Amino acid sequence: MSSAKSYTIAVLPGDGIGPEVVEQALKVLHSIEKKHGYEFNLTEAPIGGAGVDASGVPLPGNTLKLAQEADAVFLGAVGGPQYDKLDPKIRPEQGLLQIRKALGLYANLRPVTLFKGLEHTSPLKEDRLAGTDLLVVRELTGGLYFGQPKGRSGSGKDEIGTDTLVYTRSEIERIARIGFEQAMMRRKKLCSVDKANVLASSQLWRDVVTEMSSEYPEVTLSHMYVDNAAMQLVINPSQFDVIVTENTFGDILSDEASVLAGSLGMLPSSSLGEAKSNGLRLGLYEPCHGSAPDLKGQNKVNPIAQILSLAMMFESSFSDVAAATTIRQAVAKVLNDGYRTFDIMDDKSKLIGTSEMGDKIAEAVLDKALATA
What we know:
Isopropylmalate Dehydrogenase, alpha/beta, 2 domains, 10-stranded mixed sheet, about 40% helix
């Protein structure tokens, strides 16, 4: 009987460049199997446009069932111009929203790390970027995007558009706990972002987060208004360790923070739910970039965001920091060796394609000099 750690992963390649970058990440996954003693049961299923093509809906029933029964969900990207004229209810992006809701994924994590040698790819000056290594924890299922009432009414000069910003204490507590937990695994600094000088929901948010800080005495908690946080991200990004915030603010700030790393091809993400009955935390792991259909099939795009999403999977769903560290060290090694895809290329580096980058990182994982514990 095998002593390997065994897990089931639902692999959803999606559309456009999704299948290409997922293929590269799976090369890395197989190297992790060898190095860290895993056995993975991988099952692919369609989502997004691929789901529409296969069954007429962006989230087919069999895909959802597979995801619900898996230990983790690994997603490529969804969407494409050929689906733009579809009814909005069955557009590819609905597949992503539907699976998040069905799996109860309420916390979105986006790390922003500037790898050595990539300082030139960011629009910010290098002296401002120095030391940038932060994580945005965004509440994913509440706030303006989901509050009721919502909609448009009336007509002419009396027409009204309504969105409702609602948060309950329990919603704030569970996302704040994720923020504190992540800070404990990093540099023990948590910045809670709100608009408590104006919004009642933010006043509750600040009170709840402050109350919870007594449970995490090792974490230094600070509060910042969202407008100031947006400015500080470009003035002095290295001051941040973990940022925790509500849905709309998190959407904006995480997109702003993405420019610090220079390319969307470098940015992974995870969406997390509650721990399952087996003790594992279900998560959906995907790159921050889109499906880039204009680059499909050219062996050109950067697979590193997808590969780094794999590292987040080991960290959050399988509680294996060592395997996550191995992946990140392998990425750093390949970059330090001077290999680049087109989006992070400079005149001192060696240009390689999608598949070659996947091969090199998978090989680097097996390097005995990288961490195994």
